[in-house]
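Cross-check.
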Amino acid sequence: MTDGFSVPGPAAAGPLAASVARVCELAGRLGLGQGEVFDLHELSNASGVPADVVGALLEGRPAGEPDLQARFLQRFDLLRRTRLKANGRRWTQQEIADGAGMSRQQAGALINGDRRPTMEHCDAIQRFFKVHAGFLTAEDTDALNGALQRTEQRLLQDLQEYAGESDPLERLLQDHGVRGIAWRAAQLPTDKHRDKVTEWLDMLLESVKPAEDTDASKATET
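Predicted model, tokenized:
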């Protein structure tokens, strides 16, 4: 065990395991303990996934709620407990209803599980609580993976600040957008997908070269 969970071993695979490995590597480069980046309760709040399920998934064990409505109820309850008003109190059903553009009866039925949510309901509630799209509906593995990817992005930014703008290579990566391209490519699940990105970039480069060559020729003639 490492700070409350076991890092997925060789048997664990898929995007979640890859994200865990990348976050571990970045944490090590920044001198952070794994407990600082894999806090179960923080990841639960960020993803909507119950903390015990977060722990199981990080260990590479199968876990999670397969039923969409059950996941919705879990995460709606988490939002009501963790996304509080400025005075520290919970939002009332009426306030949620008003903010999400629905009746109090509709909000109550959704909170109590008496009504299945539509995508419109989910979108409205997510906007009200200012969480990302899919927070209420994504499968537990995908939701946790998304939270880890946001952690990874934050660590990359910290690493960039740590390296300092005086580093010529760091400045080159930033100026040309290389880091953003590389970070997005790293989210792809297999080398085959990443090879496809390389092919697309090569095609894009070929498509812009003739235009650049023509402009250069015209400039020479004049």
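The first helix runs from residue 15 to 29. The CA atoms of residues 10 and 204 lie 37 Å apart. Passed to J.P. for a second look.
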